[in-house]
Amino acid sequence: MPYAAPRACSRCGSPTPKGQRCPCRPAWEGSTHPGDDARMQELRRDKLTADPVCEWTSPNGRCRRPADQVDHIVPLAEGGARYDWDNLQSLCTPHHKQKTTQDALRGKKRAR
Predict the structure, then answer these.
(1) 39 with 70: CB under 8 angstroms?
(2) Which keywords has UniProt assigned to this entry (predicted)?
């Protein structure tokens, strides 16, 4: 049985297989934060208002940079609660990247 004919992208006109996105349209386009709903956006805004300074703690003490990211302490992939205030922390961008890298490395070692 033949496959469906590709459709033309409405933006750039290039042929795109049915059911797939054209590369000119990233999956996150138009989203304020990929995968978030209104409830999470409001929770993020409230968390940054309540805790505007990075909550990262190291042996040298606590970071003093302004927080601009909200992170799940226990990642969702590890069973963390999405909307639980106690599972959120305000972080600056460098510390959020560091934490995300640690989470990703731990995820690679998890059994699938």
Answers:
(1) no
(2) Endonuclease, Hydrolase, Nuclease
